[in-house]
Amino acid sequence: MTDELTSRLNARRPTPERPLLGLTVLVVEDSRFACEAIRLLCLRSGARIRRADCIASAHRHLAVYRPSAVIVDMGLPDGSGADLIRELAESDQRVPVILGTSGESAAETDALAAGADGFLEKPITSLASFQQAVLAHLPPDEHPRGPRMVSADRIDPDPIALRDDLSHIASVIAHPMDSDQIEYVAQFLSSVAQSAGDSDLASAAVALQSAVHNRLPPRNALGEISDLVDTRLTGTGPS
């Protein structure tokens, strides 16, 4: 083996400072804000990231390459994240690390029951927790050599990504929706609110979910959501 080739191989091996160097992480997440957080965590950890915003997009990615880890949001626009986790877990060529994620801690049970190796509760901001969640399920020979300092750093996603999510919500609720679409809005809003630490938006999402589950008219809940989203997009409320 030449010195040049050895140098190239060593350059892709994980280090204590970048313990996920050489890994590719597929993030199946419809929220741009939540995905931006994971992108920053991957960047700090040395991993490459690919994003799919729905199950169909994830299937297209997986047909082309095999990632080292897949992080799956439990609520996606075209189906349940649990179904994708189950499919990945039962595959003959199983991805080394499968993690579920959600803003609702109760979703952890569903993720693990479907075959996930672990669970990341939103907001995902701790560098150390993210790195450990991935490393805990990798083979020992893919871990960095030597002692690894546990970082206390936390990441702060770009607020522009949050505005993109809020604009998406505003666009969807501006048009007539069926019950499935309303339930998706409630789930998506809950996820965004948890990632952004926005308690008012989170409460509005709960109110909409309650209306859907109890088969009540969602008009009042949707009106409150519209007002809250508008204040954030116009800069007159929390952002």
Automatic annotation (TrEMBL):
Query: Which Pfam family would be a valid example here?
Result: Response_reg
Q: Does the keyword Metal-binding apply?
A: no
InterPro entries, per database record: Bact_response_regulator (IPR050595), CheY-like_superfamily (IPR011006), Sig_transdc_resp-reg_receiver (IPR001789)
* Annotated source species: Aliiruegeria lutimaris
GO biological process terms, semicolon-separated:
phosphorelay signal transduction system
SUPFAM superfamilies named among the record's database cross-references: CheY-like (SSF52172)
The protein's matches in PROSITE patterns, at most eight in alphabetical order, are given as: RESPONSE_REGULATORY (PS50110)
Q: Which PANTHER family does the UniProt record give? A: RESPONSE REGULATORY DOMAIN-CONTAINING PROTEIN, STRESS RESPONSE REGULATOR PROTEIN 1
Q: Which residues carry this modification: 4-aspartylphosphate?
A: D73
- Domain Response regulatory residues, every copy: 24-137
- Keyword Phosphoprotein: yes or no? yes
- What name does UniProt use for this protein? Response regulator receiver domain-containing protein
